[in-house]
Structure to design on (627 residues):
C-alpha cells in the first residue's frame, strides 16, 4: 500500500511515469477542471483580502470600527451609498463597509478552517477507533455518533452560545464538537471493510500494533473521502458561523463579521441596498467558490461519478 | 423484521435518553437567573427562594432530572416557567406551522431536484447538465437567511411597492382560516427552503440515475423497443429513487428542529422560533422539550427510512 509519504514523493519526481498514485492522478484531474481552478483562484483572492485587511484600512484611511458620524451618515442619520470616500458605502453607524468586509473575511476563513480542522481530526480519530477496534469501543462510539447526529444542531448551538456568551472560541468549539459525527460515520464505514483486507493481516503478522496499523496502514486508505468531505465542509461551517452571527450569537460587536453585518443591515434594506448587498455578496461568493472547488475535488477523487 | 424493529426502537430510546441527560446537565449546571427575572427588579431574596422552590429549582440537579424523566415517560414534559403552560401544549401549537413549512417545501424540492437530476442524468456532460448543476450549487451555497431576505426584498418589498401586494412580509395564517391565506403566507418560505435543499436531490438523483441507466436491464428494455421516456421514467427512475427516498426521510426528520432560520426570517412561530424565544428567556422546560421532540423526530425518521429501504429494495434484508 502506498503511504502518504510515498504519495508526496511521487509528486516531487517529475519523471515518475510508472505507478502514479491515485492521489497524483486525482490532482491531475483537478488541475484540468477549469471551474475548480477558477474557484480556487477566487478562494485565493478572498484569503488575500483577509490577510491584507489592514491595507484596505490604510488605503481608505478608515479603521474598521471607526464611526464617521458626520462624513459617513446623511443628515437624517442614514447610511451613505458608495462614493469616492466610502467605495462600498457606509453602515448604520457610519463605518466603512468595504473595510469591514475585508476584516470580516478573516473571521469567516478563520472559523471555517479551524472548526473544520477540529471536526476532521475528531471525526477521523473516533471513526478509525470505532471501525478498527470494534467491540465495546465501537458500540459506545456508534451510539455517540447516533446521539450527535440526532440532536437538532442549530438549536443546541444557539442554546449553548446563549449560555456561555458569544465569542470566537465558543463558535469554533460548538461547530467542531457537533460536526465530527458525519466524518466519523464515513471513516468508520470505510474502516470496517478495510480491516478485513490482507494488508492489515500482513501488517499484524509483521508484528505491528493496533495504533500503528490504524494510523500508518489504514488511515491513508480513507484519506480520499476525508479530503472530499473536508473541502465541502468548509463552506458549511462558514455559513453556520454567519448564521449564528445573524441570529445575534456570533461575535460581540463591534468586531466586523459578515453574518453580523447582514443582520445589522436588515432594518435598512429598503433604504441602503449596499449595506446588505456587499456583505451578502462576499459571503455568497466565498461559499460558492468553496462549493464549486469541493465539487471539482469530489469529481477528481471519484472519477466514476462523472465519467460515462 | 420484528426483531429488527424492536432493536432499532430500543436503540432510539437509548439515544433519546442520552440526549435528555446531556441537555439537562448542560442547562441545569449552567448558571440560571430565571427566578430573579420572574421575581422582577424588586424581588426580595425570599420571593426568589419561593419561586425557586415552586419551580423545583432548589432541589439537587439529579432529583430534578428524575422528576423530569418520571413525567416525560408519562408524556408530560413539564410546564413553561412564565405562564405554566404545559410544554406539550406549546409544542402542539408550534408543530403544525413547522410541519406545514417542511412538507410544502418538501414537495417543491423533491419535484425540482428529481426533475433536474433526471434531465442531467439523461444528458450527461451537456450544457443542460452543467447549467443545472451550477444552478443547484448556486442555491446550495446560499446562507438560508440571505436567500430569505432576498426573496422578501424582491417579492414582498419591491412588488408591494409596485402595487402587487401578492406576498406578505411574514407571519403565519392557520389552515383553519382558509387555504388561500395559508398558501400565500407560506409560499416564500417554501421557495426559500426548497431552493436550498434541491441541490442535494439533484446530485443524488443524477448520480443514482446514471448508475441505473448503465444496468443491463435498461439495455434490455431499450432493445425491446420501449420508448426512451418510458425506459427512463418507469424502468430507470423507479430503482434510482431509493437513495432519494432515504435522504428525504432523514431531511424531513431533521427539518423539525432545523428550520430555525427560515422561521426567524419569515416570522413563522413554529418550533424553531419558539425554541429561540425560550432560549432568550432561559425557559428551560421549553428548550429541553423542543430539543427532545426534534431529536425524537430524527430518530423516528431514521427507523422509517430503514424500513422503507427494505420495502423499496427487495435485496435488502433487515437483521
Amino acid at each position: 500500500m502506498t503511504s502518504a509519504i510515498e504519495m508526496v514523493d511521487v509528486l516531487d519526481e517529475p519523471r515518475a511515469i510508472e505507478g502514479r498514485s491515485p492521489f497524483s492522478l486525482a490532482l491531475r484531474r483537478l488541475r484540468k477542471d477549469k471551474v475548480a481552478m477558477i474557484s480556487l483562484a477566487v478562494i485565493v483572492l478572498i484569503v488575500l483580502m483577509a490577510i491584507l485587511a489592514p491595507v484596505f484600512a490604510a488605503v481608505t484611511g478608515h479603521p474598521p470600527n471607526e464611526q464617521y458620524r458626520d462624513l459617513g451618515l446623511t443628515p437624517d442619520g442614514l447610511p451613505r451609498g458608495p462614493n469616492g470616500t466610502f467605495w462600498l458605502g457606509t453602515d448604520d453607524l457610519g463605518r466603512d463597509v468595504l473595510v469591514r468586509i475585508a476584516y470580516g473575511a478573516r473571521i469567516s476563513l478563520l472559523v471555517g478552517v479551524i472548526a473544520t480542522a477540529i471536526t476532521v481530526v475528531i471525526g477521523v480519530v473516533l471513526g478509525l477507533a470505532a471501525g478498527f477496534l470494534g467491540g465495546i469501543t465501537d458500540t459506545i462510539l456508534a451510539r455517540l455518533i447516533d446521539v450527535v447526529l440526532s440532536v437538532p444542531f442549530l438549536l443546541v448551538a444557539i442554546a449553548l452560545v446563549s449560555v456561555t456568551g458569544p465569542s470566537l472560541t465558543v463558535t469554533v468549539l460548538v461547530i467542531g464538537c457537533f460536526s465530527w459525527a458525519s466524518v466519523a460515520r464515513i471513516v468508520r464505514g470505510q474502516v470496517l471493510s478495510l480491516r478485513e483486507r490482507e494488508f492489515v493481516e500482513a501488517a499484524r503478522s509483521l508484528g505491528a500494533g493496533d495504533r500503528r496499523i490504524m494510523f500508518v496502514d489504514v488511515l491513508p486508505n480513507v484519506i480520499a473521502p476525508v479530503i472530499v468531505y473536508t473541502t465541502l465542509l468548509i463552506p458549511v461551517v462558514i455559513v453556520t458561523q454567519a448564521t449564528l452571527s445573524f441570529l445575534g450569537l456570533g461575535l460581540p460587536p463591534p468586531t466586523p463579521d459578515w453574518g453580523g453585518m447582514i443582520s445589522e443591515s436588515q432594518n435598512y434594506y429598503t433604504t441602503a441596498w449596499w449595506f446588505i448587498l456587499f456583505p451578502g455578496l462576499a459571503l455568497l461568493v466565498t461559499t460558492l467558490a468553496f462549493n464549486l472547488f469541493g465539487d471539482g475535488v469530489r469529481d477528481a477523487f471519484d472519477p466514476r461519478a462523472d465519467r460515462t | 423484521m420484528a426483531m429488527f424493529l424492536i432493536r432499532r426502537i430500543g436503540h432510539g430510546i437509548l439515544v433519546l435518553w442520552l440526549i435528555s441527560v446531556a441537555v439537562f446537565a448542560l442547562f441545569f449546571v449552567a448558571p440560571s437567573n430565571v427566578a430573579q427575572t420572574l421575581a422582577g427588579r424588586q424581588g426580595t431574596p425570599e420571593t426568589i427562594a419561593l419561586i425557586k422552590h415552586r419551580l423545583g429549582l432548589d432541589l439537587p440537579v439529579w432529583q430534578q432530572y428524575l422528576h423530569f424523566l418520571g413525567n416525560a415517560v408519562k408524556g408530560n414534559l413539564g410546564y413553561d416557567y412564565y405562564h405554566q403552560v404545559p410544554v406539550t401544549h406549546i409544542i402542539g401549537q408550534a408543530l403544525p406551522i413547522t410541519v406545514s413549512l417542511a412538507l410544502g417545501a418538501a414537495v417543491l424540492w423533491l419535484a425540482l431536484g428529481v426533475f433536474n437530476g433526471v434531465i442531467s442524468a439523461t444528458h450527461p456532460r451537456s450544457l443542460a447538465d452543467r447549467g443545472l448543476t451550477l444552478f443547484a450549487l448556486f442555491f446550495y451555497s446560499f446562507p438560508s437567511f440571505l436567500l430569505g431576505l432576498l426573496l422578501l426584498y424582491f417579492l414582498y418589498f419591491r412588488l408591494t411597492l409596485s402595487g402587487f401586494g401578492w406576498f406578505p412580509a411574514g407571519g403565519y395564517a392557520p389552515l383553519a382560516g382558509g387555504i388561500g391565506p395559508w398558501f400565500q403566507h407560506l409560499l416564500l418560505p417554501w421557495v426559500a427552503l426548497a431552493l436550498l435543499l434541491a441541490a442535494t436531490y439533484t446530485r443524488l438523483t443524477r448520480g443514482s440515475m446514471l448508475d441505473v441507466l448503465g444496468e443491463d436491464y435498461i439495455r434490455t428494455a431499450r432493445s425491446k423497443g420501449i420508448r426512451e421516456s418510458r425506459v427512463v421514467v418507469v424502468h430507470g427512475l423507479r430503482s434510482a429513487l431509493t437513495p432519494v427516498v432515504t435522504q428525504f426521510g432523514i431531511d424531513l426528520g431533521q427539518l423539525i428542529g432545523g428550520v430555525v432560520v427560515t422561521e426567524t426570517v419569515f416570522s413563522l412561530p413554529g418550533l424553531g422560533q419558539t425554541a429561540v424565544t425560550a432560549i432568550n428567556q432561559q425557559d428551560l422546560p421549553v428548550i429541553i422539550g423542543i430539543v427532545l421532540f426534534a431529536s425524537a423526530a430524527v430518530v423516528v425518521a431514521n427507523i422509517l427510512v430503514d424500513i422503507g429501504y427494505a420495502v423499496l429494495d427487495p435485496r435488502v434484508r433487515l437483521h
